[in-house]
Each structure stands twice: as C-alpha cells, then as structure tokens.
Automatic annotation (TrEMBL), chains A, B:
Superkingdom of origin: Bacteria
Keyword Transcription on entry: yes
GO function terms (MF aspect): DNA binding; DNA-binding transcription factor activity
Keyword Transcription: yes
UniProt-listed InterPro entries: Bact_HTH_transcr_reg, Chorismate_lyase_/UTRA_dom_sf, Tscrpt_reg_HTH_GntR, UTRA, WH-like_DNA-bd_sf, WH_DNA-bd_sf
Keywords from the named record: DNA-binding, Transcription, Transcription regulation
Protein name: GntR family transcriptional regulator
Annotated ranges, domain HTH gntR-type: 3-71
CDD domains tied to this protein: WHTH_GntR (cd07377)
Signal peptide annotation: none
DNA sequence: TAGTGGTCTAGACCACATG
DNA sequence: ATGTGGTCTAGACCACTAC
C-alpha cells in the first residue's frame, strides 16, 4: 500500500504550500535537489511538479527556479445541478410543464441567423413553480428535438442526454420578476429572482441558449475553490 | 516553431473529441498504437493522455483501454473578479467606505467561538453605491487586521494580499434589498440584489466570512466551461 | 554563460481487470 | 492468462533567461 513516489513528492509540497509553511513567492528546491532528497530520477520529480503547476499551486521559471504561486482570486468551481434530482433530494416532487413550442429564425445572439425551436416552460417543485425557462435550440445542431417528448422531461435534461455540450458560458444576475413570470411563480412583480443565462456549443456549433428565472427564495448556486484531490 | 510532440498528440485527440468525431464512450487507440503512429516513445504518449485524463476528457481503464468520458454537467469555472479593477475597466472611479469596525465573539458559522473583527462598508462606483459588504475576520488567523488601513482599501483586497486563502465556499442567491441596504445603494426596499456569501480557509484555519449585496442592475457573475487550453 | 526547467528516449517491472 | 495502463529509470539535448 505504498503510494507512488511521484504522488508522495507532490503531496509533500502540496501540504507545505497549503499550510503556509511555504508561503506565496517562496522558492522550492531545484529538480536536482529533489531528486537527491527522494533518491529518484528527474522524470519523476518533473511529473510531480508539473502536476502542481497545472493545478496552479506553483509557477516554474527557467533559470530562476520553481516558486509558490500567488493565489488566483478569479476562479472557483461552480456547481451546476440538474433541477430534477436537486428537488428530489429536498423530498419534493419535480415536474416540468411545456407552455409553448414553436419554430422561428433567431435574430441575435450566438444562434443568430439559424432556425431554432423556441421552448417556454415552468419547473415545479410540489406544484409550486420555482423557475421559468425560455430556450432556443438550434435545429441544425439538434434535428431530433422535434421528436423529443418534452411534455414531462425538461429540455435541458433531454438535451444533455442527446447532444452534450462541450463549451458553455453562463451569466448570473439578479432581476425583478416580470408580471408574467411573477404569476407563474406565485410572486409579486418585481420580487427578487436569480436569472441564469447560458449559451452552449458543441465544438464550434452553437447548440442552445437558455434563460432561467428562479424564485429568489428557493434557489441558490454554490461554488467552491480548493486543492481538490489530495 | 514546432510544438512539442506530446502537445500535438494531446491536441489531436482533444479536437477529435470536441468535434464529436470521437463521441463519448468511444475507444481511443492503445498507447502502443499511438507510439507507432507518431513514432515516439511510450512516455510521451502517456503524458499526453494523462493530461487529457486530468482534464476529464478521457477515462483510462487498465486492461480495457482508454475511452472518451461522458461529459460532466456539473462544474463550470466561475470568474470572481476583484471589484476595484472591474469598476475601473468600466471607466468609473472605485471607492470603498468603511462604516463600522468592531471586535466581537462569533456565535455561529465556520468562525463560531472565535474572536473576530466585524467590518461593514460600501463599495462605490462614481459615488454610486453598488454593493454593501458585511465581513467577519478571524483575529487568530489575521492578527494584523487591526493595523490595516481599511479606510480606502477594501478588506477583501487587503486580505488577499496579506493572508491569501487556499479554500473557499461561495453561495449565490437573489434577495430583496433590506431597508438599510436599499438606502445605501439608492434603491427601494425589496429591489432585486445579487447576494454573494463566501467562507474562506487557509489550510484548516477559517479566515473570513463575507456577505456582499450587489445592486441587481449593475453587477453580474460569469462562468465558463470549456476545453480551456488548446 | 551557466543553471534552470522542457521535453524526449528506450527500455523496465508491476498491478490490474478483462476475456 | 494476457494485454492494458501506471510508474519509474538513467540518461540526453534543447531553450530560455537571469546573472
């Protein structure tokens, strides 16, 4: 049960960095010194340090050496849960109701100029509307969307199983509920809602644009930053 | 200007996967076959495929082979910009005003039972309040906080330079502005605001808890998912 | 210019899971 | 049982850059 040597090297420096023992800007030993200390070949040391560099914990500069990176403020991992299991986990019953489905030519956005299916619906938890969804799906990229049974399965869930995206942008804002949204969600107009807008691609082909408006009091997003594996 | 061989191997499979040429579940050639095709050693192939595996694009199983991974829905990279440069980039003038600074013993949360400094202040863009901030900073972890000049530099910026965190949780919700918040931000009570709550640690020591309430009409968060490097 | 990391080789032994 | 990936070695040459 002895862990790989490269892992032990990586974990040792990981610990020293996270504990503050090696503060940001500190210099690590050279590969030669680490080789000698662990009695291993240079390739093993190189792979261990490369992993730390990929993870952003260290920064390597030729001729100068290897240094503990200044922490990057600007990136955390955002959890993007699927609504159905999330609501089921709360002990509530999930449902989706499709209110509109039509074809149209998109005028703007990353789907501009393409024929698309326009889908509007509501996500429910125990008969309480918790989110309204307005979606465009490229017919060129997803011709099968016409045959999908979207009466109960949310378009997002269906899409994910049939045409998983490889690239996505998400924009998160707070908005006041529009009158129609408010009535669907059982709110008063202007009540705070979380608005999530997402554009997705597969390779370079745009797939879908979706705008989801969630009741502010029953939905939250969670993000995490940390060393991750260890 | 010839790219490293390992990179070329990695990029080739990356492209085939993202284009859908190699769909999820498809099997990649064995390392032996790739060695032969590129005329390189096995180590080079191994490093290229390991990088793809770390990135989550492929999955490697002994005796079975290497396969294109089923895409993971549930994680995107959330950009967490520092407010000052963000506002400067808009061509506005940034300022922070500290309204309260006191010591207290925290009762709940990840700082429970610890003495802390309680800081309340407002972020401004061109004299318009755009966010109110309520923060607790552990005195045990950051004794220097007492000496910090927080009159103009936001506590978050100061903290980042002096005690960078290594781990953080963020919760994003939509809330209605409380009366006091509304008056500070020039809103009416109940107007939609984006609420960001973050807990941070350095190693296992809790550092700070912060709740920021942003004007819904002048702040947004952006997240991205994609192959990243290429 | 000398020391650092970046990359690569041509082997090797091992663990493991599948056929 | 066998073929796959996991890891490691003991070298090597090169590019870059801080000294």
């Amino acid at each position: 049960m002895t862990r790989p040597l490269g892992d032990r090297i990586r974990v040792q420096f990981e610990r020293q960095i996270l504990s503050g023992d090696l503060p940001p800007g500190a210099r690590l030993p050279t590969e030669q010194e680490i080789m000698a200390r662990f009695g291993c070949s240079r390739m093993t040391v190189s792979k261990a340090l490369s992993a730390l560099a990929t993870a952003g914990l260290i920064e390597r500069r030729k001729r100068a050496g290897t240094f503990v990176a200044r922490p990057r403020v600007h990136s955390m991992v955002l959890e993007v849960p699927d609504l159905a299991p999330l609501i089921a986990a709360r002990g509530q019953t999930y449902a989706f109701r499709l209110d509109r489905s039509e074809e149209l030519a998109v005028r703007e956005g990353h789907l501009a100029g393409r024929p698309a299916r326009h889908l509007v619906g509501v996500h429910f938890a125990d008969r309480q509307g918790i989110a309204v969804e307005d979606r465009l799906v490229s017919l060129a990229a997803v011709p099968d969307i016409a045959r999908a049974d979207l009466a109960r399965e949310a378009p997002g869930t269906w899409l994910l199983r049939h045409v998983p995206w490889t690239e996505a942008d998400t924009r998160i804002t707070a908005v006041g509920a529009a009158p129609q949204e408010a009535s669907l969600l059982g709110l008063s107009p202007g009540d705070p809602c979380l608005c999530v807008e997402r554009r997705t691609w597969r390779g370079r082909d745009p797939i879908t644009f979706v705008r989801q408006v969630f009741r502010g009091d029953s939905y939250e997003l969670v993000a995490h930053f940390g060393p991750g594996a260890s």
